[in-house]
Design brief:
Residues 134-229 form the RCK C-terminal domain. The protein has 229 residues and is of the alpha/beta class. It has 2 domains: 2-129, 3-Layer(aba) Sandwich (Rossmann fold); 134-225, Regulator of K+ conductance, C-terminal domain (Alpha-Beta Plaits, 2-Layer Sandwich). It is built from 9 helices and 11 strands. The chain has helices at residues 10-21, 33-39, 54-57, 76-89, 101-110, 123-131, 161-164, 166-170, 218-225, and strands spanning 2-6, 25-30, 45-48, 67-70, 94-97, 114-116, 135-140, 145-151, 173-184, 190-199, 211-217. The strands form 2 sheets. Strands 3-2-1-4-5-6 form a 6-stranded parallel sheet, sandwiched between helices. The protein has a 5-stranded antiparallel sheet with strand order 7-8-11-9-10. β2 (25-30), α2 (33-39) and β3 form a beta-alpha-beta unit. α4 runs parallel beside α5 (101-110). The longest helix is centred in the middle third of the chain and has 14 residues, at 76-89.
Length: 229
């Protein structure tokens, strides 16, 4: 996949490096030449430029990029302006970093696809989340094994855990099933709540909006995630 990461501070540089190590093409951008020089040997491409300059940004290969991630953390104004420019130009998927709750609301108003909180989430976790297609969340136990949350592939809807054969076919363990349940409030309004079913049973039937919590090796998880949604 192709990524553009704008902002090569600790989080941005680390994420860019890990995505490059996974075999992705990454363009790292920062207006600080020192940061660009520090990462140029570790990622695919680096550019020193001001991302708040719309004319300059428009020259980037945005249409050919799968994900653009604004990781600027020191300058909230530059983060917002850069995000707004890229949103206006249009990209396949735009992710931006939030520095505080008010900043997050502004990013939501701009219409980003996802928001990062580096103080709570590591670059390793985001690298895995971005590299493994259809992963909603992940937790890396070590270099080889992880726990992930993933959507149920279309072909498996209506089948039981036993019928699918997660252990035999994919060498994976289903820890639990997270379901989206529609509930009514005391005022009669309906809302969707997330409910964890507890330890998964072999007889549990998978439904369209279910989320699977899976444990296994990264290699086996990647094989499973290639299944059709």
């Amino acid at each position: 996949m192709k990524y553009i990461i704008i902002g090569l501070g600790n989080f941005g540089a680390s994420l860019a490096q890990k995505l490059t190590e996974e075999g992705n093409e990454v363009i790292g951008i920062d207006r600080n030449m020192t940061k660009v020089d520090a990462t140029k040997e570790k990622i695919s491409h680096t550019i020193c430029m001001d991302s708040t300059d719309e004319f300059t940004v428009s020259g980037l290969p945005l249409k050919d990029t799968d994900i653009v991630l604004v990781a600027i953390g020191e300058d909230q104004g530059a983060n917002i302006m850069t995000t707004a420019i890229i949103k206006n130009i249009g990209v396949k998927r735009l992710i931006s970093r939030a520095i505080n709750p008010l900043h997050e609301k502004v990013l939501q108003a701009i219409g980003v696809d996802e928001i990062i909180h580096p103080e709570e989430e590591t670059a390793e976790r985001w690298a895995k989340k971005l590299c493994l297609h259809n992963v909603l969340d992940s937790f890396e136990l070590n270099d080889d094994y992880s726990i992930i949350e993933a959507k149920v592939p279309t072909d498996y809807v209506g089948k039981t855990v036993r019928e699918i054969g997660f252990r035999k076919k994919f060498n994976l363990l289903v820890l639990t099933i997270i379901k989206k349940v529609e509930v009514k409030s005391n005022l009669g309004k309906t809302k969707i709540e997330t409910r964890i079913q507890g330890v998964a049973s072999a007889d549990d039937i998978l439904e369209p909006n279910d989320i699977l919590a899976l444990f296994g090796s990264n290699k086996d998880l990647q094989a499973f995630l290639k299944q059709k949604l």
